[in-house]
Design a protein that fits this description.
The structure is a single chain. It is built from seven helices and no strands. With 105 residues, it is mainly alpha-helical. Helix 2 packs across helix 3. The two termini are 30 Å apart.
Length: 105
């Protein structure tokens, strides 16, 4: 079973290997991402949503531009909105996102 998660299969391929639906795989992954994000948020109280997402990307080895977009889209809608709002608020406040990003990666 562990070999299923080492490969970069899409949801349909994973679903087929697990004998379930693509939608079930997607929903399970979104729930897991949310749980992990909320646990990290609980542990790292000084980090905002943007830093939490960057930390998770670093932990999971997400570096390719295409993978970053895919990773962001794995979050449930409410978490994506948190991250997006944090980025917008930081930009409006003139905070350096680039420096925040590279200090975590």
């Amino acid at each position: 079973m562990s070999s299923v998660f080492v490969q970069t299969d899409d949801g349909a391929e994973i679903a087929k290997k697990l004998g379930t639906t693509r939608q079930n795989v997607s929903q399970t992954l979104k729930r897991a991402m949310k749980k992990y994000y909320l646990k990290l948020k609980e542990m790292e109280k000084d980090m905002g949503p943007f830093e939490l997402a960057l930390t998770m990307m670093n932990m999971f080895g997400v570096i390719d531009k295409t993978d970053v977009v895919k990773f962001y889209n794995l979050f449930p809608h409410d978490i994506r909105q948190e991250i997006k709002s944090d980025v917008i608020n930081c930009r409006e406040a003139g905070l350096p996102l680039y420096e925040r990003m590279h200090s975590l990666m």
